[in-house]
Amino acid sequence: MNHTTPLVFITGGSSGIGQALAQHYLDAGWRVALVARREHEMAAWAKPFNQDALCVGVYGADVSIAQQARSAAQACITQQGLPNVVVANAGISVGVDTAEFDDLDVLQRTLMLNIAGIANTFHPFIAPMRARGTGSLVGLASVAGIRGLPGHGGYCASKAGAIAYLESLRGELRGSGLHVVTLVPGYVATPLTAKNTYSMPFLMPAADFAMAAAQAIAKHKSYVVIPWPMGLVAALLRILPNALFDRLLSGRARKPRQVKTPINARFAYG
Fold this sequence. Notes:
Layout: E1 7-11, H1 16-27, E2 31-36, H2 39-46, E3 56-60, H3 66-79, E4 85-88, H4 101-132, E5 135-140, H5 153-172, E6 178-185, E7 188-189, E8 204-205, H6 206-218, E9 223-226, H7 228-239, H8 242-249
Parallel strand pairs: 1-2, 1-4, 2-3, 4-5, 5-6, 6-9, 7-8
């Protein structure tokens, strides 16, 4: 492989959706750049693909920190070239109880990674992609960003913010040759969602999500809910009256609180 082979840059690449996307693009003949804090895990996963050439680049960074995200992007451009597709996938999802003081820090970290982390990821690529005239910037939102769920305040707020941010960016980049894609997953089977104790309708294997996501990216879809039945749920959630919505969620199991924010954990509508 060489610099003419398409390149995708994926944050949150050490497990779950990020790794599934990486595997899908590798199978399709692309080169991959993976970014996460767990650099050693990514390097071990990537090693079999790098026997003859640098098919998978590995860059350690916490994308909630702008300078680290910028350094990872610059290293990728230097070593592998300017990506064709950038996927801002890194994120965290933990339960939050506003009555608990320690959870305020968890909420702030969630907002920082799940919203600012997307902007930090995209920023270093926008100017060179504009100069080239092509490129796709892909952000991972969630159906959880449609309505607020009890006990999920941090995650729901962050994904609602991500949806609005990506929509704003799409308008800003209109006519530049760059495409902004908002992916809105439902429940996706990852090691982390396996720990959920509540029902997860339309649970989707990560590999199937990656395939559907790649198709949406290739078609430059501006906004897509995956899987499609969850799109119907999302549409219904938008129009439900508050009183009915609150009654339906009464007694629903909540995501466990976790005072210490997990490293690079991201999973859909969890």
